[in-house]
Specification:
Number of helices: 17
Distance between the termini: 42 Å
Order of helices and strands: EHHEEHEHHHEHHHHHHHHEEEEHHHEEEE
Shape: globular
Structural class: alpha+beta
Helix content: 40-55%
Largest sheet: 6 strands, mixed
Bound molecules: protoporphyrin IX containing FE
Length: about 475
């Protein structure tokens, strides 16, 4: 077990090593491409800070939780950058997820209040409507690709939460269609070593370009309509109060208010975002908020089917809170504090299958990490996946055991060890949104349906843009 009270810096000795198996020229790039999860799993055994080589470039993987903590708590020095963010930025724009420290500060000031807990009931109402559509579409004994259904669900929930009433039904459907194509294409572009294949006029590349353009058009159309709405209202006596009230609850409402400005003044964060900035922010929220929650849910249903003991505990809790059989009712946000077992189940899913499995940072000045001097421009990596499976922190890490999150057992985890949402000032602002959506979906569907895997299906973690299950054919049976 690691000590939990290691000093923030200095004082403590950290072991450093170079990862074995580097090939001439390619370094570890091939290993990382062929079996990324196996490669990540192997690294903590070599040291607390492990050097790997990506082609000619050297990068350092923070394996010890304390080093991860030091990276994440110094976001100005260990800034967003490095191979991952450099590849994603041109594809989704310069929104909150990819922006560097200076940009980030003003963006986050504007976006953060949109995730305040007081706003959650409005988002939860949208979630419940969409979950009801998904749950109602299942048919007794008829196989369904649950992975696809969950991506459609979260795409619709995120799109509707970003824009509230301003997004039209056909445009929500377009987001649902285009987003999975975009996410798959982003992953391929992130991992392409040369970036040449992505420029060829192949069918896949055309589909990607079409999906990206369609999404950008939907977003831009909706942003412009929202931006114009206030201007129109200002010129009329009564305005469109109902629509304004609806839009006020959306994720984008604060950004739109800042864009419009009160009587020409800049917004709360001291600047007026342009329409392009609003578009980038909306695209970021769509990309960051969709496949993450969908993959957590896919893993949750997969594990629920394969772990009879844990599943029994979850179902008993759901029946106790929501009523079983004909007395059953749909879950709402007020039920969440009464579902601790369901929440522990999801936390265990997040430990083993964190959607964001690998992240990079770049140093903005000469610094050090674990005693290793790092010149400005160095690449540092950390992996929520590796942290969650570290045997020195989690005994029997491969065992799915939601009870490890009982308060009396979870209390002494070192900080930096369980980071499915990151940590520090760049921690995921959508964590409450994602957990609410995942809990409501699991509660609503699992209290009504038992989902069995189609026999013969083999599911293993696929490290793509998120850590996904791949196709997840399951057969619903009424409970
Ligand atoms: C279970 C679901 C989710 C997981 C596991 C997750 C995970 C993460 C992680 C690990 C980061 C930090 C990345 C880094 O440090 O480089 C992050 C950042 C972010 N997430 Fe999430 N996320 C989830 C859901 C959402 C949702 C629903 C939204 C929005 C609707 C969202 C929006 C964002 C944004 C905007 C950032 C960038 C924050 C910043 O850099 O300041 N996420 N997320």
């Amino acid at each position: 077990m690691y000590s939990t009270d290691a000093p923030a810096s200095g004082g403590r000795q950290f072991s450093r090593a170079a990862a074995p198996g580097a090939l001439p020229v390619l370094g570890h790039a091939l290993l990382l491409r062929r079996d990324p999860l196996g490669f990540l799993d192997s690294l903590p055994a070599h040291g607390d800070l492990v050097e790997i080589r990506l082609g000619p470039q050297r990068a350092h993987m923070a394996c010890h939780p304390e080093l991860v903590r030091q990276v994440l708590l110094r976001p100005r020095v260990f800034d967003k950058g490095g191979p991952l963010f450099d590849k994603v930025r041109p594809l989704v724009g310069n929104g909150l997820f990819t922006s560097s420290w200076e940009e980030y500060r003003k963006q986050r000031l504007l976006v953060q209040p949109a995730f305040h807990p007081s706003r959650m009931p409005r988002y939860a109402a949208v979630m419940s409507e969409e979950i009801e559509v998904l749950s109602g579409s299942l048919r007794e004994g008829r196989p369904v690709d649950l992975g696809d259904a969950l991506t459609a669900l979260t795409a619709r929930v995120t799109a509707r939460s970003i824009f509230a009433t301003r997004i039209s039904a056909p445009d929500v459907a377009e987001v649902q269609r285009s987003l999975p194509v975009l996410l798959e294409g982003i992953y391929r572009r992130m991992t392409a070593p040369l970036g040449v294949a992505e420029k060829l006029p192949t069918r896949a590349n055309r589909r990607f370009a079409h999906a990206r353009n369609s999404l950008l058009q939907v977003i831009e159309r909706t942003v412009r309509a929202s931006a114009a709405a206030r201007t129109d209202r200002a010129g009329t006596a009564d305005g469109d109060a109902a629509a304004e009230g609806d839009e006020e609850g959306s994720l984008m409402s604060l950004l739109l208010a800042a864009h419009r400005g009160a009587a020409g003044e800049p917004g709360a964060a001291g600047y007026r975002p342009t329409v392009t900035e609003l578009r980038d922010q909306a695209m970021t929220l769509l990309v960051a908020g969709t496949e993450t929650t969908a993959s957590v849910l896919a893993w949750a249903f997969h594990e629920l089917a394969g772990r009879p003991d844990a599943a029994r505990g979850v179902r008993e809790e759901l029946d106790g809170v929501l009523g079983g059989g004909t007395a059953r009712r749909e879950p709402g946000i007020a039920d969440l504090p009464r579902l601790p077992r369901t929440q522990r189940f999801l936390t265990e899913v997040l430990r083993l299958y964190p959607p964001g499995w690998l992240f990079t940072r770049t140093t903005t000045e000469d610094t050090e990490l674990g005693g290793m001097p790092l010149p400005a421009g160095s690449t540092v990596l950390f992996s929520p996946y590796m942290q969650g499976r570290n045997p020195r922190v989690f005994p029997e890490p491969g065992r799915f055991d939601p009870d490890r999150w009982l308060p009396e057992r979870a209390g002494d985890l070192p900080r930096g060890a369980m980071i499915p949402f990151g940590m520090g000032s760049r921690k995921c602002p959508g964590d409450g949104f994602g957990v609410t959506e995942a809990t409501l979906t699991l509660a609503a569907v699992a209290s009504r349906w038992r989902l069995e895997p189609v026999p013969g299906t083999v599911i293993r973690p696929l490290p793509k843009a998120a850590l996904v299950t791949g196709p997840l054919p399951m057969v619903p049976y009424r409970r």
